[in-house]
Amino acid sequence: MELSILNMAGQETGKKIALNDAIFAIEPNDHAIYLDVKQFLANNRQGTAKAKQRSENAHSTRKLGRQKGGGGARPGDLKSPVRVGGGTIFGPVPRSYDFKLNRKVKQLARKSALSLRASQGNILVLDALNFEAPKTKAMIEVLNNLKVAGRKVLFVVNDANVNARKSAANIQRTNVVNVNELNTYTIMNANVVVLTEASAAAIEATFNA
Fold first, then answer.
1. Helix, strand or coil for residue 17?
2. How far apart (Å, rounded) are the C-alpha atoms in residues 48 and 39?
3. CATH second-level architecture of 2-45+98-208?
4. What's the gap between Cα 149 and its chain centre?
5. Which segments of the chain belong to CATH 3.40.1370.10?
6. Of 68, 113, 159, 189, which one has the greatest count of Cβ atoms within 10 A?
């Protein structure tokens, strides 16, 4: 697919870029996207939830009543899960939620996410994204020029680009990532993906490696 290259003023530069159809124009695989997003969110879970089991409860183990003749169920101690303040049955314990996902599935998911955004007309290409100094006002101006202000916007760059990152840091729903940080979740979590010429070339090189 072919897109016009814009500048930071939102104007066409007269140049066009041909995005690789094998990356930006495939039939999106919804299940691959689901699995990759699920793994990303699972890997980011702390997994520190903890409830005290019966053996960990700091109560006496004294039997509260006689075994028979009390007129009710057989009484246990204060640690019994059926009593207030007792242990928790099958409560959460610290664990890892990580699970394995094949590299080819992850790659398919990222291609599917990019193709989905491209099919929606939500991929833009800039000639460059350079700021002389970190300025939130300058980034807001770029968003307004591109007519994407107020939407979730993901800028993909091919270098550290510290000034761009800092310029976007205080703007809600705007994120700047390096090509190496690009994943299915960040693509799907954005309404518009803005590439630079350099990052588009780097994405193609990464997927063809």
1. strand
2. 18
3. 3-Layer(aba) Sandwich (3.40)
4. 21
5. 2-45+98-208
6. 113
Which tokens is 114 given?
């990019």
* CB 92, CB 50: distance < 8 Å: yes
Written as six digits, the tokens of 193 are: 């993906």
β 123-126/192-196 pair status: parallel
Helices and strands (DSSP H and E) totals, the chain: 7, 6
Residue 185 has a CB neighbour count (10 Å cut-off) of: 19
Token pair for 171 = 């703007």
Residue with tokens 């879970």: 45
pLDDT tier, 1 (very low <50, low <70, confident <90, very high otherwise): confident
Instruction: Give me the phi and psi of 126, to 5 degrees please.
Output: -100, 155
Query: For 145-184, b where at least 16 C-beta lie within 10 A, e where not — what string?
Result: ebebeeeebbbbbbeebebbbbbbeeeebbbbbebeebbb
Local structure of residue 198 (DSSP, 8 states) = H
pTM of the predicted structure, to 2 decimals: 0.86
**Over the stretch 25-35, which tens digit does the pLDDT of each residue have?**
999 999 999 99
Assign residue 63 a region: left if phi > 0, alpha if psi is -120 to 50, beta otherwise?
Answer: beta
**10 CB burial (10 A radius; 0-12, 13-18, 19+):** middle
Q: Do residues 87 and 79 lie in contact, with contact meaning Cβ atoms separated by under 8 Å?
A: yes
